[in-house]
Amino acid sequence: MATKDVIPGCTLVTELAGKVARVDMGFAYIIATLTSGRRCAWGIGEFGTLLLQPGDYTGPTWRDNSQLPREMPPRSFGGHYVTQLSCGDTMVLGLTAQGAVVAWGSNQAGRLGIGLTQQEQFGVVEVKALSGKSITKVQCGGAHTLALAANGDVYSWGSGGVSSFTTSVAVTGGIARLGHGIFIPEFALVETYPCLPFPCRVPCLPPACDVACGQWHSFVVAAAVRDNGTRDVYGFGGNAYGQLGLPAMAVFTPTRVPSLSDLPIRVPGGLIGGRLHSAAVTLDGMLHTLGWGEYYQLGTGSAPERSSNPAAVTALRPFVVEAAAVGKFHTLTVVRQREGCQQASREEEDDEEDEGEQEDENEEGSEDDDEEVEGEMQEDDMLIYYEEEEQEGAEFEFEGDTDDGSGDGDSDTGGEQEGGAAGEAQGPPPTGANRHV
Questions:
Q1: What pLDDT is stored for residue 24 in this prediction?
Q2: By the 8 A CB rule, do 190 and 184 touch?
């Protein structure tokens, strides 16, 4: 694949065609998990996110970047068999087959959960604070992470501040997107960007079954399910654009989101956080969106600056949404045709085809009628033409006879003239008013 600064349209990554099982993306890098279980990475890896140089982690260099997919050697993972990945802006968290959590990349603001002894981690390291917790899922935001344990506990760590871009509310002294409110564990740092450099259990939550992270916000889905398939959804973090579905501009503690709790959200993976908007896939395969929609990323046909009420994307009603991904200015879905709509679509296509055939027949019939009428008009024109020709021929013939027989006595005038001018010289034939028919 040719390398360019910008590639308009879709371009096939030929090196990975037919081999990819999953793709995870960070701020400027991509990690693809292949069907074989191996992984390839490309993009900017200045913090060691690509793991492309095992045994040589001396610092970020241009060699850590890759314009083409390159395999991440198994030895890069330090003997850990990683079954699940989640990418943040500049860090990667992984889950092993044994339930251990591993991390690598940037450790700014404690986003790797290994303390603050180093700013970058150019190799895989285990997050010791979660050892023995039986973690079942890790989910990265921009610079923070949530981990879900088998017993329903939720742990958070990393940068807890909410960017001034997302809210005008001062949050210094709190760690909003980590869900700990005004409670600051003794190892938290309260600076320009307050953080938790080690995982800490999020308080005030019921047992959970799923977690999701946006750039500056977080969701937790309760394990308890009601008869109609709905579950309580809790949100915390930045909410300046309504991406949490709550009225406040910033939410410091886990708060139940009524509008999302009324939706039968698919578990796991049905709740997705983006930069400033969020999406929810329900059990019936519908997509609902909320948050910032100025670039039509909500898919509702409007562009609200702030929308805290989840709205169904009706344009996707003929389809069943199987998966969704949320970015900064866009939303993507994987869909299949809904069965009822598929039959209706076929009937509509048949109706359109019948209408097209009927229109063609009508057009052909109209053309035949036009041709028939045109033929009749041409025949009438020919008859008129022939009649005019016959009349002109008759007049021409009569005029010739009169000139030739002017002295033959065919007219009374001629007779009289001939009789009255006996023995005299014959005069010129009569002309003008003297001619009669």
A1: 94
A2: yes
Looking at residue 28, its amino acid is A
Tell me the per-residue pLDDT of 40-71, one tens digit each, with 9 for 90 and over: 999 988 788 998 764 444 455 545 688 889 88
Residues 6+ apart with CB under 8 A from 105: 47, 48, 49, 88, 90, 91, 92, 112, 120, 121
The parts of the chain modelled with pLDDT lower than 70 are 1-10, 53-64, 162-175, 182-193, 342-352, 354-437
Q: Give me the pLDDT at residue 360, please.
A: 64
Task: Kindly provide the b/e burial profile for residues 212-248, where b requires at least 16 CB atoms within 10 angstroms of the residue's own CB.
Answer: bbbbbbbbbbbeeeeeeebbbbbbbbbbbbbbbbbee
Task: Using the CB atoms, write b or e for 1-16: b if 16+ within 10 Å.
Answer: eeeeeeeeeeeebeee
Quote the tokens at residue 339: 């069965």
pLDDT at 416: 39
* Euclidean distance between CA atoms 239 and 217, whole angstroms: 7
pLDDT (0 to 100) of residue 7? 56
The tokens describing 188, both together, are 């938290």
Q: Judging by beta carbons within 10 Å of its beta carbon (0-12, 13-18, 19+), is residue 62 exposed, middle or buried?
A: exposed
Terminal CA-to-CA distance of the chain, rounded, Å?
Answer: 99
* Beta-bridge mates of residue 32: 23, 40
Q: Is the peptide bond before 268 cis (omega within 30 degrees of 0)?
A: yes
Residue 52 pLDDT: 75
Q: Which helix (H) or strand (E) holds 30?
A: strand 29-34
| Pick from 241, 245, 334, 327: nearest CA to 281 | 334
Could you tell me which residues are beta bridge partners of residue 71? 40
